[in-house]
Write a structure and sequence with these properties.
alpha/beta, Rossmann fold, 4-stranded parallel beta sheet
């Protein structure tokens, strides 16, 4: 299938998560970063050569060629950004190149401050802030798109293209990475850190307080044995210890059976192993109404339907625990309710 010039259909689970537009593009290409000769790579290489020329390393060789695809306009844009006025205490032109950064920035920043978000955040099936995101220009996660807004802050994700980050930093654009927290405390810390970067520390504290209040409303009966659960993600992955999902399961009163497999935080498991684990609840990491995709094939296997006869099979929208944001409280509440239903269905 030729995807040139098109944005792919983003069914839940179709990309490795957490996913930014630029990271999704890398997955489509089947590689780990920009292909040779991409605009990002060429710009960074050209700018490095230019810097060396100024230092005398290229003396006698002539000036380096202009960047491919961008011409001298790319150099002019870089120069304008580099000599821009000092950054304001509260950024006024924020561009996000990551889905998870989109969601937090749109909840923390003033209206109009975020100038562009990834196209993934505009998909209601995969994002929690699609209504807000739909009002903004979308980007594909490329550095050149961010620089077009003369940003005073660019947000990237943990799997961002290193060449894009290098380009942004070389032209003087402030860059903040939004990571993939593995604990509730990590989620709280990331909300606070990004709020400070956006000049909105009070809003960060308010968002954390709201998260904690929503978590406190989820009551789990600790006097009863924990139900055993296993998560099945697209492409046959499950989630083990050392992950945010593992903490979410525990907070919802569930025992994550992947802990018995001696696996990493995110690892593929055969369906035969899933069937033999003896789970009370099988959690499919997708929206029940998601469109079919190759990544979801494992979740649609006939064996899953057969397992439904001896365990509770439920689907959790991936958007609730894809990113480490306040929506994890909804994931905890959703799973606690699913556990309660499973108990009622057990003779």
């Amino acid at each position: 299938m030729n995807l040139a010039g098109k944005r792919p259909h983003a069914a839940n689970g179709s990309f490795f998560l957490p996913c930014a537009a630029g990271e999704g593009d890398r997955a489509k290409r089947g590689g780990g970063g920009s292909p040779a000769g991409s605009p990002n790579e060429t710009c960074v290489r050209w700018m490095t050569q230019s810097a060396r020329a100024k230092g005398g390393e290229n003396r006698g060789r002539g000036p380096p060629p202009p960047p491919c695809g961008g011409g001298w306009g790319a150099l002019l844009l870089a120069a304008l950004v580099a000599v821009a006025s000092p950054a304001l205490a509260k950024p006024q032109r924020v561009v996000s190149l990551n889905l998870c950064a989109d969601e937090l920035a749109l909840q923390l920043a003033d209206p109009g401050v975020v100038k562009s978000v990834t196209w993934l955040s505009q998909d209601r099936r995969n994002a929690n802030v699609a209504a807000k995101a739909a009002t903004l220009p979308a980007n594909d996660g490329h550095a050149e798109e961010a620089l077009a807004y003369d940003p005073d802050l660019v947000l990237v994700g943990p799997f961002a293209d290193p060449a894009s980050i290098a380009l942004l930093k070389q032209v003087g654009a402030p860059v903040v990475e939004v990571g993939a927290p593995q604990t509730f405390d990590g989620v709280r810390r990331q909300i606070r850190d990004l709020a400070v970067a956006l000049g909105e520390p009070e809003r960060g504290e308010a968002l954390v307080a709201d998260l904690d209040a929503r978590l406190a409303r989820v009551v789990v009966d600790l006097s009863r044995p924990r139900l055993k659960a296993v998560v099945l993600r697209p492409n046959g992955f499950t989630v083990g210890p050392g992950s945010l999902v593992d903490e979410i399961l525990a907070r919802a009163g569930l025992d994550n059976l992947a802990r018995r497999l001696d696996i990493a935080a995110d690892e593929q498991v055969p369906l035969e192993v899933v069937a033999l684990l003896g789970a009370d609840i099988l959690i499919l990491d997708r929206d029940a109404a998601s469109a079919p995709s190759l990544a979801d094939a494992a979740l649609d296997h006939p064996a899953i339907a057969a397992l439904a006869g001896r365990m509770t099979v439920v689907s959790l929208p991936a958007r609730l625990w894809t990113c480490g944001g306040p929506e994890i409280a909804e994931a905890v509440a959703w799973l606690a309710a699913a556990a309660a239903r499973a108990r009622e269905a057990t003779p």
